[in-house]
Amino acid sequence: MLQAFDIETERRTAQRGLRVQDAHRLVAGLDVRVPVHGGAERPYVNMDNAATTPSLVPVLDCLNRFQRHYSSVHRGTGFKSLLSTHVFEQARRIVAGFVGADAEHHVVVFTRNATQALNKLARRLSLTAGDVVVSTLMEHHSNMLPWRQQPCETVFARVRPQDGSLDEEHLEALLRRHAPRVRVVAVTAASNVTGEIPPIRRLARLAHEAGAWFVLDATQLVAHRRVEMGAPDDPERVDFLAFSGHKMYAPFGGGALVGRREVFCEGPPDETGGGTVHAVTPGEVIWNNLPEKEEAGTPNVNGAVTLARAAQLLQQMGMDEVAAHEREMAAYGLDQFLSIEGLRVFGRRDRRVGVDRNPIFAIEAEGLEHGLLAAALGHEWGIGVRNGCFCAQPYVRQLLGIPTAEMSTIVRRLAAGDHTRVPGLVRISPGLYNTRDEVDYVAEALRAIVTHGPACGYRLHPHHLDYVPEGDQPDFGRFSPL
Ligand SMILES: Cc1ncc(COP(=O)(O)O)c(C=O)c1O
Q1: In 3D, which of 214, 204, 210, 207 has the Cα closest to residue 236?
Q2: Cβ(299)–Cβ(290) under 8 Å?
């Protein structure tokens, strides 16, 4: 009956025999040329995929086709509403399959992004003053602040300053020290700064031996490696997983929290309102079933559909093939960037030991502020990167070895509104579609900037506090869709 639009049919009819090597053909906007300082144009080279990936064209096509039938979900009785509800639930099953969740033990809750997913989880675990959350200094703020906002104690395992890897012994020591109060072990599946991938299965085992839930922030891993929840009795299982669509080629404001069903069955949801209830009287509320109970308000159906379609495409390419390609890119990038004199690459640098890491390169140029290096790459070479602390300030501080006293001075200066001389790094993060030629081009640009300095003068923009070229400013007018 509900045949007008079906994600499964999309999968079967489009992209048969899709390969990782085809990824660069599937990305929207790869042919865009951008203005650079001096009036010329250059092809845009996006090396900021750890922040947000571009859309895959089949994801856009799927979204476009769906729009003809898109309507309200759950409460509508018309054909389009029924169909949209069917597609929304189909998206949920696809996302569950993508991370190996099973409907009996797990629930997939669609969220705005990973940040909302982790905030929701932190609130829903009903942590109290005697509880302890063990996390790491490697975390993105989104897997750090939500735990610190709870009435429990949150402690952080150290990282090794020389290569940014997790100090597992310290994490074990924290588990022992705080036993039996540890309720949660919350770690990143991959660092958004160094690409470091901690030993996830070993950490899960430690968490479960300590009687704690194991929470994995998989935001930087789902588009790079196969991620599996594991069976509910597996000591190396993941209990809760969070991720965002916009880092896996579906930037439409969708994210997911996948987790143990029993936790969400208990008690009221963290956010209430439309969709969360079976019945309301002036004095009483009967909560809805899962997952509706946890998705307050009208859900982002398009975000869920595109997230699911991107998951299908990654699976079609094959997550093992994706991983092999990424490892190769990590090794190639390391080779290129390590060979540049005057450039320091943070994180693990030894590719011979076969260390598994994402192709994310946090770098620093001798004698050149990170903001200026990023600005020169963007304004002079048309290369998109990011600089600063990447919402992982404690980690970047460890990597840079900034002493506590100096950090306090910096924090005081920031609080007083002085945003100059803030420590940070430049991050280069190729995606699945970037080529070796593009990495070579970035290396060429870095070599030139490190050797000769930026080609023009820059000033700090008074509002967004980035460096912009003195004189001419980029003209966004002809690029804006509005
Ligand atoms: C490791 C990690 N966790 C969480 C987040 C938060 O993701 P979002 O901003 O999509 O909620 C990010 C974003 O950069 C991240 O890199």
Answers
A1: 204
A2: no
Q: Which of the listed residues 244, 300, 358 should we mutate to test ligand 1's pocket, taking the one with most ligand atoms within 8 A of CB? A: 244
Is residue 220 within 6 Å of ligand 1 at its C-beta? yes
pLDDT over threshold 60, residue 122: yes
Ligand 1 centroid to residue 140 C-alpha, Å: 7
Count of H-run helices and E-run strands, the chain? 15, 19
Q: Which of 116, 222, 391 should be mutated for ligand 1, with most atoms under 8 A from CB?
A: 391
Is residue 165 within 8 A of residue 195, CB to CB? The reply is: no
**Mean pLDDT (whole number) for 420-429:** 92
* Cis omega (within 30 of 0) for bond into 299: no
Average pLDDT over residues 217-225: 98
Is residue 13's pLDDT more than 60? Answer: no
Would the pLDDT of 129 be above 60? yes
Return the active site residues.
391
Closest Cα to atom 7 of ligand 1: 114
Q: Is the CB of 113 under 6 A from ligand 1?
A: yes
Domains of the chain: 33-54+318-474 (3.90.1150.10), 65-316 (3.40.640.10)
